[in-house]
Design brief:
The chain is 91% helix and 0% strand. Helix 2 crosses helix 3. The longest helix is centred in the middle third of the chain and has 132 residues.
Length: 175
């Protein structure tokens, strides 16, 4: 066994101080020349990440704003479409009502013309019938009575009486 100081490995010797000096030199070199570029690269990377996150936040906000605009435009389009539909339905209803009114007016006009035509035709037929019946009645009455009914006033009164009797009989038969 030798010297106790040499046998205890916990006591510092010359190797320890050399190793300590080399260790401190390496730590100093790391701190001076190696860690600053690494720290700068890490900071640059953090800045890039931060910038990217901020750009992503801005893009997300822009996307949300664009989505809100799209929804608002879609809602406005729906509102305008419903207004157009309501306007079209109102126009359709007014056109249908106008067409109905025109058709009703046209039907009333046609009916009025037909009634006027029927009245004129009836009056014409009645006048023609009076002439023919009058002539026949005068001739017949002349033969029955044995006297000539040449007097126009007397003939007209006889014809009118005859036609009134015919109309009374026709009205009595229709009721």
């Amino acid at each position: 066994m030798g010297n106790i100081a040499e046998d205890i490995f916990l006591l510092p010797n010359g190797t320890f101080f050399v190793e300590l000096a080399v260790f401190l030199f390496i730590v100093f070199a790391l701190m001076k020349w190696i860690l600053p570029p690494i720290n700068k690269a890490l900071e640059d990377r953090q800045n890039q990440i931060r910038t990217s996150l901020e750009a992503a936040d801005v893009a997300a906000a822009d996307a949300a704003a664009a989505d809100a605009e799209r929804r608002a435009a879609l809602e406005e389009g729906r509102r305008q479409a419903s207004e157009l539909i309501a306007t079209a339905q109102a126009d359709r209803a007014s056109i249908v009502d106008g067409a109905r009114k025109e058709a009703t007016d046209a039907a009333a006009a046609v009916t009025a013309r037909a009634e006027a035509s029927l009245s004129a035709e009836r009056a014409s037929t009645l006048a023609s019938l009076r002439r023919e019946v009058g002539t026949l009645a005068i001739t017949l009455a002349g033969k029955v009575v044995g006297e000539s009914l040449a007097d126009d006033e007397r003939a007209r009164a006889t014809v009118d009486r005859f036609i009134a009797d015919l109309e009374a009989q026709a009205n009595g038969a229709s009721n």
